[in-house]
Amino acid sequence: MKQNSIIKLLLIIVLSLPLLLQADFRSYGNDHLRLLQGPGSSLYGTAYGLMNSGSENTLINPAGLTGISSKPLYLYHSSWFRNEVTASSVAYSFSYKEKALGFMVSRVGITDIPDTRNALLDYGVDGIPGTGDRGEGNGVLDENEILDYDNVQYAGIANYALHLGMPVYQKKAWTAGVTFGFLFTDLIDTRGYGLNFDLYAQHEGKYVRSLYTLKNLPSAMMVFNNGVTQFYSPKFKTAWLFPLQTGDFQFSAWTFCRRFHSGRS
């Protein structure tokens, strides 16, 4: 009873945030979390959440967590663009009071980003300092202005996240699950703290298994230390899995689509 009350309180807080704060809605946001779901999700998309009960379902499909998975520990690391972009995550699932719980800690980082703010030779369009020509001293790279490459600095940014996922309701062939995310982003001189909440519904049909996902419900939020607050619009995804068996051979056909994604770019 106490656990249900805590879950309801968290839901009320998350659902009330857009009403309590005024912020711009953006169509982007938290897209980097897709890099953490491993090769299975990269290959099969949302449908991968129907194919396994491993700890990566903390982020993919918490309704599919069982707490007794043969893969309770999930370790993932990958890199792209000559190791300039990296994604790492660790997840673990277990059973607590006959309830499955999953935790995931993750990081997505980008290195060697050129910072040219201190390298601009802001002399104006004539390229001569002290003349007061158009564009001189305005802090913007204007026509004919150049950079002092010796003063270009390179820095990295990182996004950290802690996610908690669990199935919360089951009735007949339906299982509902939720994921709470606590986010931190370090953008060189700016830092942000955020929350996201995702809702999942999994159906076990006689011939078709399906998954319905509402991400960023009712929106994800990020608050930056420079006073900017942003909300990221919700996304609706679905996936269907069709098992086919012929003799000793079993096949699975899958499909998925995104139905709803709104916001301002």
Layout of SSEs?
Elements: H1 2-20, E1 24-26, H2 38-44, H3 48-51, H4 57-60, E2 73-80, E3 85-96, E4 99-115, E5 120-121, E6 146-147, E7 153-171, E8 174-187, E9 190-204, E10 209-215, E11 220-224, E12 229-232, E13 235-246, E14 249-261
Parallel strand pairs: 1-12
Antiparallel strand pairs: 2-3, 3-4, 4-7, 5-6, 7-8, 8-9, 9-10, 9-11, 10-13, 11-12, 13-14
Q: What does this entry look like structurally?
A:
The protein has 265 residues and is mainly beta. Helix content is 13%, strand content 50%. It has 4 helices and 14 strands. The strands form 2 sheets. Strands 1, 2, 3, 4, 7, 8, 9, 10, 11, 12, 13 and 14 form a 12-stranded mixed β-sheet that branches. It has a two-stranded antiparallel ribbon with strand order 5-6. A hairpin with a 2-residue loop joins strand 3 and strand 4. The C terminus is likely disordered.
